[in-house]
């Protein structure tokens, strides 16, 4: 890890030195620039793009007033992210219905659910590949046909003590010294709605780091970011990969695999969201970092 002292992540515990699967071939990063491609779905007032990582699916949708999105027999909890205050969603899950105001993150229970859009805009939904119908739509689905020995099989985190229900959290959270971004978790995902970039990131204060056993998903909602990624050298030179310096505007998704060293630089004012599936233990152990920690307990041990 190489963080500037002003970065709250500088206080994180160091990663293990010898990760499981460290001799496995490297897997590539994935870049999905939705502004360059046609959506996988375009009907009934909804245009949706789908891309995935090992454990997650990102569904980015442009929606019109009155549009409806439904899930039947959804196998696990999923996430609704509403970046815009003007887009409200009427959420029904089982016998419960809530009007979910915009500029929020909402966790939706397994089973049947229905989203009715009120006000045109954009929404993002986060699923696991257990939603096989959505996995089949992903632009990079073929890349995940084989398992990655570095990444353990997906296991859900514990259920909330009071059971599943629609849970909405406002993104309007003031910045706090010592806290990294704005983090929420559920049984399947951790969402870090990073503090918005006011302009280009200081070249002297980047944050190159790596993860040994999980991917990072970086969702760009506004502005543009350059993702810098490199892979460690190993004795087998045929496994080496060239460094990557990929500019991704909005909207886009970058899937960053382990154990690549990576950092992202805002090139202008913008908004990025980091997504992890399942939630991160190290972030969860930091007091005050997970804003809804009381609703979703950590695994025992």
TrEMBL record:
Gene3D superfamilies the UniProt entry points to: Jelly Rolls
Biased composition (Low complexity): 8-24
Matching SUPFAM superfamilies: RmlC-like cupins
Top-rank taxon, per record: Bacteria
Region Disordered, residue ranges: 1-24
Membrane-spanning segments: none
Name recorded for this polypeptide: 5-deoxy-glucuronate isomerase
């Amino acid at each position: 890890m190489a963080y500037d002292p002003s970065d709250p992540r500088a206080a994180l515990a160091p990663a293990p030195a010898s990760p499981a699967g460290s001799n496995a071939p490297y897997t590539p990063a994935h870049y999905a620039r939705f502004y360059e491609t046609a959506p996988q779905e375009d009907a009934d007032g909804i245009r949706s793009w789908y891309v995935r990582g090992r454990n997650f699916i990102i569904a980015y949708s442009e929606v019109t007033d009155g549009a409806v999105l439904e899930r039947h027999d959804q196998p696990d909890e999923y996430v609704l992210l509403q970046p815009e205050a003007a887009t409200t969603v009427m959420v029904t899950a089982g016998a419960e219905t809530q009007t979910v105001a915009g500029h929020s993150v909402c966790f939706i229970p397994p089973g049947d659910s229905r989203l009715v859009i009120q006000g045109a805009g954009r929404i993002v939904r986060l699923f696991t590949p257990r939603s096989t119908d959505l996995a089949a739509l992903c632009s990079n689905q073929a890349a995940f046909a084989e398992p990655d020995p570095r990444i353990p099989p997906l296991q859900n985190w514990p259920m909330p003590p009071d059971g599943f229900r629609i849970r909405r959290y406002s993104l309007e959270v003031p910045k706090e010294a010592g806290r990294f971004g704005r983090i929420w978790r559920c049984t399947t995902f951790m969402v870090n709605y990073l503090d918005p970039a006011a302009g280009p990131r200081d070249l002297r204060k980047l944050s190159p780091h790596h993860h040994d056993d999980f991917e990072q998903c970086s969702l760009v909602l506004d502005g543009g970011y350059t993702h810098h990624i490199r892979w460690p050298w190993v004795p087998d030179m045929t496994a080496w990969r060239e460094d990557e310096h990929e500019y991704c505007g909005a909207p886009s998704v970058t899937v960053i695999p382990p154990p690549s060293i990576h950092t992202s630089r805002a090139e202008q004012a913008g908004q990025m969201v980091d997504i992890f599936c399942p939630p991160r233990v190290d972030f969860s152990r930091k007091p005050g970092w997970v804003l809804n920690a009381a609703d979703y307990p950590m695994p025992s041990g």
